[in-house]
Structure formats: structure tokens, C-alpha cells
What does this fold into?
Amino acid sequence: MRSSAALPQLPAQPRWLESRRVLTLILLGALVLSLFAVDWSSGVLHPRGLAAIGDIFGAAFRPELSLELAGKAITSAWRTVAYAVAGLTVALAIGMPLGAVASGTLTGSRTASAINVGLVRGLLAFFRSIHELVWALVFVAALGLSPIAAVLALGIPYGGMLGRIYAELLQDVPQPPLESLRRAGASEWRVFWYGRLPMALPDMLSYTFYRLECGIRSAAILSWVGLGGLGFQIQIALADLAYGRAWTFLWALVILVLLVDQWSTQVRRRLA
Amino acid sequence: MLAPFDLSIEPGERVAMIGPSGAGKTTLLRMIAGAIEPSSGTIHLHGRALARMRPGRDLARLVGMVAQQFDLVPNLSALHNTLAGRLGEWGVARSLVSLVWPSDRAQGLAALARVGVQDLAYQRAGRLSGGEQQRVAIARLLVQDPRIALADEPVASLDPARADEVLRLLVAVTEEARETLIASIHTVELAKRYFGRAVGFRNGVMQFDLPTAQLTNERLDALYELGGRDSAL
It folds into this structure.
């Protein structure tokens, strides 16, 4: 740029003084210092630790396989999926409308939408900044150990996440097709339905599937709170030190996640 | 950037904006479409000041445009993209219902048939070829039925035979609807063949405004000559 010639020249600085390099040096120094703070004399693992790790991961290749256990794995996997899907349904009911408002694209009016956007973004941030486990404790305290507690605990923070990402995806669609809709006389509300939503939908869907995957993992963890499902079975097996049985359920969890992954790939391929 | 100029176009005229890339043709078209405001001066469409009109139905009834990239919504069907030309006329409820059960379906299909792509009505626009998308964009213009039709580089990157075909179609549909047609165009031959009047731009300055019959090679050479005194290159 020609105008930069008129600016006063800054004195040349040694390259190692650039702020990013300084930060790197400080962090490296902190890492080295922290290694000295570890008490290495008694070993990092406790004496039986290594053997225990071996036992646990060794059991991955020897899961307990009985008809009864397989039946139990399937019913608890089904329950976990049910929690996850119901939770995600609640999340969609929260995330879709709030995300649309938070994107600030529903009306042309700048001031009206700025207020709504601020409020709704704050609400979404509140929903997702509290972890589903904490929500679970709250709802278990309020509703008791009921499936509704698990579904709400999952749905609320996930709704916050969906809403936030939906808002961004709705904002980031290519502008020229929206312009052409406006030129054809469409109001912002119609531009939303005919332009933004259709164009953002594939990405919204693929993020939702990713969240369903996360939801299945979370639903398994939520059953630690005593709500049944795969997590509950894993917890019992681990308490019995029955690693083989625990792995039966862990593999069921892995298979579930793989199935959801397959499903989402197929849906996305159809939409592409 | 455009230098100040006066230009008045009669209803039903066909005007070609010619000149090299970056001459300001697209800017002018977008101004007439109400997409950008001139920094000074006014634009009147059928006696109404453009600056005083709010975007929406009234403007859409006056001006419509086929953009250079056609600007369809890729995930909607060709039929929905065509019927989007009616969005200014429909109420909110009708617009929403139409996403599932298309309103004015017959009109949309007729427009698609007029431009020769009725077989593709239910294909998603993103899956169509460039030429097919352009035809859908023209169908949308047909359905919108504005008084003034704008076309930004309708024949850019088309081979001569196709270019001829597209222009013939544009001229035919705007003539049937007795619309004014203003198009930016690179090819002087086509401007002479399909347009009655040519306005030349170079680096944002209007160079001439003539019946196409009077376009001489000298004028065109001056318009397209590289490295001139006022060239941006």
C-alpha cells in the first residue's frame, strides 16, 4: 500500500522478541519446570497400576459373551439410545427456534433483532455452560430418578449447543442467492425460509447427527446417576471387577456410535 | 465507480451495456435493481424515485434481474426457485405452505416449459448444469413479471451458438411480456443483433449512447483498447 510509506518506521525488533515466540518460550519453560515438580522416586503408577491397566484392556479382547448378557446389552443399549433420541428431540425443540432468533436474520429491523439476539444468545449460553451431569443432578433432585430427568438433563445443554451452531450456520450462507430472493420481492422472513434454511440445512443436519453421537455417549454417562442403560451396567460390572462383562457393554456402546455414524453418512449423501 | 452521467430509457426498449470488464456495467445494473445506492444523483423507474421505494413487492413488480451467477438456491427444486419470483406477491402463510405444496404450480411449470427445462422442474437447482440454471433464472424472471428486466452478462462463458440461443430466448420472453430489457454484454456482434441501442462504458465513464446500427469499429476499438490514457490496467 502506498499510504504506509507515510507512517513512521518502527525500530527493528529482534525476531525472538515477537510476542508469539515469547509466549512459546514461557510455555516451554513452564513444561520443563513442571517435570521437576513430579515426585518420580515412588513411580507415577501405583505398584499394581500397570497390571490393572493390562487387565482392563486385556479384557477388551475377552468380553463375556452369553445369551443372557447379550440380551441385557441390547435392552440397555436400546434404553441409552432412547434417552439420547428423546434428549435430542428436546434439544431440537430448543435449538431450532432459539437458533433462528439468535442468528438475527428473521427480520430486517436492526434494533428489534439486536435486543432479541442478545437475550436469546445469553439464554443459549446459559443452557450449554452447565454440563449435562450437573443438569442431571438438578433434575434428579427435583423429579427423582425418572427418565424425564435424564431427557431434560440431556436436552437442555444440547439445545444450547445446537442453537448456537444453528445461528452461525444460518448467518454464514452464501449471500447472492439471498439477494436474488430479495430482488424478487421476498421479505427477510421469506428469505429465511426460501434461502437461508434450505442452504444451511445440510450442515445443520450433519452437526445434529454429530450431537446425536455425543448424546449417546452422554446418555451412557447419565445412567451413572442411576437412570439405567449401558452406563449403569458398566458401572455395576466395574464395581464387581468383572472387566470382561464391562467390555461387553462398552463394545455395545462402540457399535451404537458406529451405527449412528453410518446412518448420518447415508442421510448426508442423500442430501448432497 | 461510475462517473456522473444521464441516461433515459423508454419502456420496451432493448439496451445493451457494452464495455470491457470493470467498466461499471454490473454496478449500474445493480443500482437500477435497487441493490446498491448511487453516491449522488437519482434513478427514476416509471416515474418513481428508486431511493424512495422500499425493497419488496413494489420494487419487484418494477425490476427483476438475472444475475451473472444466476444465484439460485441450490437445495431447492427448479420449480421452487422459479416460484420464488412470486414471493413478493404471496402472503407469509402461502409462502410457507408453498414450500411443501407449491402454489401457482401451473404458472411455474409453464414458465419452465417456456424456457425449455420443464423436465427438470423437480430437480434440485444445485444439480443442474450452468446453462440449465440460467434457464431456471429466466423462468423466475418470467414468473416475477417485472416491467424492467435486467440481465448481467447473460452470455459470458457461453459458446457462440448457445449465446445466440440464450439471447434469443431473453429477447423473446421480454418482448412477449412487453418488458424493457437491459443487459450487459461483452460481444458486440450479439449487441448489434439483438439490441436496438448500445451504451458504452469504460472505466466507469459513459463513452457513447447510440442506436446499435451506428456502432462503428472505431468507437468499439476505442472502447476496448488496452493501455489507454485512463486505463485502470
